[in-house]
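Weekly modeling sync, notes
Attendees: S.R. (lead), two postdocs, one rotation student

Agenda item 3: backlog of single-chain predictions. S.R. asked that every request posted to the team notebook include the full sequence so nobody has to chase files. The rotation student volunteered to paste the first one in as an example of the format we agreed on. Action items at the bottom.

Example entry:
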Amino acid sequence: MSLSSSTRSSSQGTRAAGRSSGGGSTRLPSGRERRPALAALAVILILLGAAGSALIALNSGNRSDFVAISADSLPPGHRIDPKDFSRGDLAGATGSLIPWSQASKYVGRYTTSWLYKDQFVTPANFTKEGQQPIPKDGALVGLSLDAGHAPSDGLSVGDIVSVTRVPAANDGGSPTTLVSAAVVTATAGAITDSKTSANSSLNVTVLVPVGKVNQVSAAAVAKTVTVAKQAPGTPPEVSLGGAN
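Predicted structure, as returned to the notebook:
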């Protein structure tokens, strides 16, 4: 009996020792040990969510209404009607945008550049109060230009061009510069049709001095006028602001 008892005790002690020596490296954290970490993570997520909500609320509170364009597009020289404007709201840095409360001040003025739908506008997009789109010493003349009479990549509003009269076919003479620098105020069409690649016409409107209207118009009708794009910043003979 004594030997049997000793053997069982030794065997049990060996199993207990085995459990003790192996358990230290494989035991997983208990549920109680994981709960504080999960609670801390939940608190962090709650704080981040609250901070995000507060930021959104703050930005929403700083939004203001500004004047935007409701029409699909408005060309330079267009007289503004109330229906041309829509209200749009923005937050943050808005620069010199026109507040919606001042929209009525710009009704009846003229656009100074192309404007497009949903575009927010500034005072520079319109003439000054009482200012006409065409200065007293200038006139707008339309030109229909074929291939070889204008840059092949076309012209844009605001470009500065020289206007030259060239001799007609079988006529003698030399080219004559009619306007050294004129502002392009509108364009339509293209030298080459984008769909068919066939030659077409580029129609442009240029601002020229009043004293040169007859010469430019005559050359335009006779199809002996050409235009060449000048470097950006070239001073025009007549500007939309009325100052040379």
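Discussion: group reviewed the output briefly. The helical segments are 2-26, 31-61, 213-221.
Action items: rotation student to repeat for the remaining queue; S.R. to check formatting next week.
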